[in-house]
Amino acid sequence: MTNPTIAIDRDIRVRFAPSPTGSLHVGGGRTVLFNWLFAKGEAQRLGFDGTMILRIEDTDRNRFVEGATEGIFDILHWFGIDWDEGADIGGPHGPYIQSERLPLYQQGAQELIDNGRAYRCFCSPERLQGLREEQRQKGLPPGYDRHCRFLSQDEIDAKLAAGDGYVVRFAMSREGTTEVYDLIRGESTFQNVNLEDLVLLKSDGYPTYHLANVIDDHDMQITHIMRGEEWIPTAPVHIQLYRAFGWEPPAFAHMPLILAPGGGKLSKRHGSTAMEEFRAQGYLPEALMNYLALLGWSFDGTTEIFSKEDLLEKWSLERVSPSPATFDYDKLRWFNQQYINHILTLDELTERVIPFLTAALLATKRASDPTSAEFAHIREITAVLKDRLVLLSDAPDLMSFFLKARPDPYDPALLVAKKSTPEQSLAGLRGALTVFEQGTVADEAAIETALRALAEGLGLKAGQLFMPIRVAVTGRTESPGLFETLRVIGDDRVRARIRTAIELLSGAES
RNA sequence: GCCUCCAUAGUCUAGCGGCCUAGGACGUCACCCUUUCAAGGUGAAGAUCGCGGGUUCGAAUCCCGCUGGAGGUACCA
Length: 510
Hints:
By secondary structure, the protein is mainly alpha-helical. It has helices at 26-45, 68-79, 102-114, 125-137, 153-161, 209-219, 235-245, 275-280, 285-293, 308-314, 329-343, 346-359, 373-385, 395-403, 422-438, 444-458, 462-474, 482-489, 491-509; strands at 12-16, 50-54, 85-86, 118-121, 167-170, 177-182, 186-191, 199-201, 224-228, 251-255, 258-259, 325-326. The chain starts with 11 loop residues before the first strand and ends with a helix. The structure holds one RNA strand.
């Protein structure tokens, strides 16, 4: 499907409006990204202003999570998104937190009641529940039966006088159609009869999403609503609401859904879903942004690596696809690895790795000072094994034998290479010890020459000598190149570890 | 059930009527490099462009139907 032509002919104002009900989902992350790229990239490239607004939609007191708002600001900053107006920084259209805008919504609801476009509904939750069940049993489409829409003024007054609770519902027109023009899907037509009399104001006086969103987007002069595809079904009602207020609706662009690997919504069951989890696992914001940008958007079908600057320069709404995309953890890992191995500078990577080492008690606070000896040491280690680092959280394990006084306990049997005997390993290690005592591991080339000569003299293949040394020094069978590993570990620790291995092996022998 | 959206390899995608014997990437497999594991290099397998009808000299590309997948169907967003 091809996208309708998208022309930006004016200053753009977009908003990202999360609910503080928990941590930010990757789907939300992709939505902010696209909003931000539209305003800061595409619009500005075309010579228009692009303003990004961050609004907090906390109208559901039941699902409100303490601290979630701060968490969202924090993760967005980490992700690399900024905004011009918002709940934390204010702006000319504030407040930007819906719970602080209640009078606005109540006035709006009253206005709609006054001009006949909304009505009070006194139906109890129990009645609605029963209604739904009845409809389900009869195989009828569920929905409010508009019971209270045609109450007489006397009935209404009586209920109000009796102190009955009520909600305010939108009086949706029951004939005709509503056209929704979506910037990435084109036009769709909805039959108004199928549209519900949605609740606008809840019985607790808080607005629903529908009312608050329409009033705020109008009040904050939003020009483009870019939100998830799950909002398509209510879009026609929103358009009718704008019209009921006498307002011109903004443009709509519904972003394609992000699906779980097996199909359906992406949830915890499939792996991480929250932006914070990806951060904690050691994904880089650059990699996550790059990957998320490519979920539903492509530049030329060939280019894959995009920095934030590249995206600002190249991203366009026109190239956003309407079809849903499945989240692929493997590909995300690949991007992370690319950034770690090929894109970040060594200093940058070292800086990113240190917090993970500190948390694992493998580094001190001093390490974060780039002029410290500890930083320099970690930088050396990082250089040696960055091409086997996929997640920053892998660093403590991969680096532990470099940072600890001695390797973790290992099975002495590992000291014997495949197709080798304990005697051969022992002889090799004893010979190697002499090499290390006579030379310095700082000279990789000399050590390599000496060890290869030693292997030859003992009638061993290089691997039969190198593997025992590797295990002796690292405690494991997998490591970076042997000579660089030795160099970074240093003469003293190398000699000590070889001696320990010789003891282990001769002990196991007897 | 009803409303709506979507439909190119396992996954993300290029393709907007002839440049397509369908291109790129992840993943998979093989080989090279090699002291292990990675990284890197080379190559391979993998898509009757969901199915069926049209339109057209010509369709992955346009239209219709079907099927499949997904979303919505709350006093949640």
